[in-house]
Design brief:
The protein is 30% helix and 23% strand. It contains 13 helices and 19 strands. Helix 1 packs parallel to helix 13 and helix 10 crosses helix 12. The protein has three domains: 232 residues, FAD/NAD(P)-binding domain (3-Layer(bba) Sandwich); 79 residues, Elongation Factor Tu (Ef-tu), domain 3; 59 residues, Helicase, Ruva Protein, domain 3 (Orthogonal Bundle). The chain has a seven-stranded antiparallel β-sheet. The chain has a three-stranded antiparallel β-sheet with strand order 2-4-3.
């Protein structure tokens, strides 16, 4: 949609083909239906949060940065707000308003939209793209065009129509496709205690994931235990760093009390123990932990549940403090594309001109968005990639 608007603004007659029954199905579910449409930071901030091929995005981000995105939507009538972490949302908290704004912008510019129209293939003649071949006979044979922009998304949330069509189009005309894996995705863990804490949300905890001794990821945030492992914003961000790595080399832990040093935490536990001197250990942690986590913590500590707290030894207490500071879990895998916010991998950026988004292999063929080998962390950065590359592709068509 952004590419269509930009191409129309550049004076072209634009036709948009959409295989779904309506526009923006993936956009509709982003940000839990609120649509975190960009991050209110400078270009360096955007680049620092891109995981794959950030240098490729210099031209796109400088051509249409987050300030330009916000300005575009506000000019088109959408009221915005900036929340924690510089995340930008529509003031209404409704992703449908973002879609409606884009639809209005296209309508105003005379963009012709064909819904329920899948594309079978690209039409390539003499090394140039000269149109598309719609699937089915209703649309007739080849639809001729001076240029084609492929903005089909990746493989994430296939129910929204992201089923890898763009990879098929690209490979069909000689492009390399970098290996695709789900990214910004929940993590599967080995330990059964995750399922025992299913539904428990933790806030202000610090997640650390290491590869051997090297720290790959360390951040504060919130997370959630599920029947298969862990999810939530902190986990999704971590997955963007560790997906595609050798899992057996990874170790992961949660600091449940990052604001306290080990010594301070020991003092706090001692204070609670003194207040509850004749209590069983299993009943002594309610001030420090949510109820669902206490049985798991008691079991992992190795301290007898019915031991009186005034009998807990210094060594046992040290083990307990260690668990609070490094609550361990083992990454065994990642959930699939059905739960992945984005796809890592895609059309090789080495074969696309970063200044225009035009294919280096096929003239008049452009790529934009998640179909390319580009992905970023959570926080509005992936949609910013979509807007910037879409805008650059649409406005670069001569």
């Amino acid at each position: 949609m952004m590419a269509a608007v930009a191409a129309a603004d550049a004076g072209h007659r634009v036709i948009l083909y959409e295989k779904n029954e309506k526009l923006g199905k993936k956009l509709y579910i982003t940000g839990k239906g609120r649509c975190n449409l960009t991050n209110n930071c400078d270009v360096e901030g955007l680049l620092n949060n891109v995981m794959q091929n950030p240098k490729f995005l210099y031209s796109a981000f400088y051509a249409f940065d987050s300030a330009a995105v916000m300005d575009f939507f506000q000019r088109e009538g959408l009221s915005l707000k900036t929340e924690r972490g510089n995340r930008v949302f529509p003031r209404s908290d409704k992703s449908s308003d973002v879609i409606r704004t884009l639809q209005g912008a296209m309508k105003q510019r005379g963009v012709e939209v064909h819904l329920n129209t899948a594309v079978k293939s690209l039409c390539i003649e003499n090394g140039a793209c000269s149109g598309i071949v719609p699937a089915g006979s209703r649309e007739g044979p080849v639809k001729r065009a001076d240029a084609v922009v492929v903005a089909t998304g990746g493989l994430s949330y296939p129910s929204t129509g992201s089923t890898g069509d763009g990879y098929r189009f690209a490979s069909g005309c000689g492009h390399s496709i970098q290996r695709t894996v789900p990214s910004l995705v929940p993590i599967i863990v080995k330990e059964g205690y995750a399922a025992k804490m299913q539904g428990l949300s933790l806030r202000n905890v610090e997640l650390t994931i290491k590869e051997g001794k090297k720290v790959l990821f360390r951040e504060l945030g919130e997370m959630l235990f599920t029947h298969f492992g862990v999810s939530g914003p902190l986990i999704l961000s971590a997955s963007s760093v560790v997906s595609g790595r050798e899992l057996e080399k990874l170790s992961a832990s949660i600091d449940l009390k990052p604001a306290l040093s080990a010594g301070q935490l020991d003092e706090r536990i001692l204070r609670d123990f003194r207040e509850l001197a004749n209590c069983f250990f299993k009943n002594s942690l309610h001030k420090l932990l949510p109820a669902k986590m206490i049985p798991v913590m008691v079991e992992l500590s190795g301290i007898l549940p019915e031991k009186k707290v005034n009998e807990v030894t210094k060594q046992e207490r040290a083990r307990l403090v260690g668990l609070f500071k490094e609550f361990p879990f083992t990454v065994t895998g990642f959930r699939g594309y059905n739960e992945a916010v984005v796809t890592r991998g895609g059309v090789s950026v080495r074969e696309v001109d970063s200044a225009t988004m035009q294919s280096k292999k096929v003239k008049n063929l452009y790529f934009a968005g998640e179909v390319l080998d580009l992905d970023a962390r959570t926080g509005g950065y992936n949609l910013q990639i979509a807007w910037s590359t879409g805008y650059l592709a649409g406005s670069s068509i001569p």
